[in-house]
Design brief:
The chain is α+β, with helices and mostly antiparallel strands and 186 residues long. It has four helices and seven strands. 27% of the residues lie in helices and 32% in strands. Strands 1-2-3-4-5-7-6 form a seven-stranded mixed beta sheet, sandwiched between helices. Strand 6 and strand 7 form a beta hairpin. The structure holds coenzyme A (COA). The site of coenzyme A has 22 residues, from strand 4, helix 3, strand 5 and helix 4. It comes from Xaviernesmea rhizosphaerae.
Length: 186
């Protein structure tokens, strides 16, 4: 695999959905993080709708491309739906299995953090399988702190697995209140 070609980060498009789905499916079948049934995999239309919804609500949804091919993606959703939680997001990040360990996860994470901070979000939260050393390492290197350990919350590959909850503040974090809402919504 060509490692010297430049990797670009940009917002995802409808045309990226099939490539994102292929990356996701491969991790489902082989990844430490997943181990779910094929039936739980979203279909292309689901992913397309989901992506459009996220985009409409201005939640960052990014892809990494190399030579025009999608080699990874990352996005956020609201941490919780209730209005009080509107400044906190929960993220996901996936890199194509043939492009792991080449700095793409790092580029996506940098892009996602910057885009979320620019969008006004204040906290970013992730759940990581306790055995997922790559993801734990990536998050640690971006200043995510382990804020929780959830024992035995997943059952996969014939055994119970723990999850680690990580969190990082964005922009001014909790040092200032959020800006007042626009006049039209007051
Ligand atoms: C986690 C994941 C996104 C990392 O992407 P990546 O492109 O391989 O990572 P990078 O090459 O950018 O590495 C960034 C950092 O992650 C950590 N890391 C990456 N691979 C690692 C590994 N195999 N072991 C330990 N740490 C690792 C390191 O801290 C690394 O920094 P360094 O190179 O300075 O040591 C990727 O492994 C992946 O897609 N995994 C499957 C899906 C998944 O688990 N997503 C996360 C769900 S929470």
């Amino acid at each position: 695999m060509e490692k010297d070609t430049e990797v670009l980060i940009r917002p995802s498009r409808d045309g990226d959905v099939d490539a994102m789905l292929a990356i996701y499916r491969r991790h489902i079948r082989h990844g430490v993080e997943f181990g779910v049934d094929e039936g739980d995999t979203p279909e292309p239309d689901d992913l397309r709708d989901r992506r459009k919804n996220l985009k409409n609500r201005r939640f960052p949804h990014l892809v990494a491309t190399r030579d025009g091919e999608v080699v990874g993606y990352a996005y956020v959703v609201l941490f919780r739906k209730r209005p009080a939680y509107r400044y906190a997001v929960k993220h996901s990040i996936y890199v194509h299995h043939e492009h792991l360990g080449q700095g793409i996860g790092r580029l996506l994470m940098r892009g996602l953090i910057d885009a979320c901070a620019a969008a006004g979000f204040r906290q970013m939260i992730g759940y990581i399988d306790a055995d997922n050393t790559a993801s734990l390492g990536l998050h640690e290197s971006f200043g995510f702190v382990r804020v929780g350990h959830l024992p035995a919350v997943a059952f996969r590959h014939g055994r119970w697995s723990d999850s680690v909850m990580v969190q990082r503040s964005l922009g001014p974090g909790a040092t200032t209140p959020p800006p007042p809402p626009p006049l039209s919504t007051r």
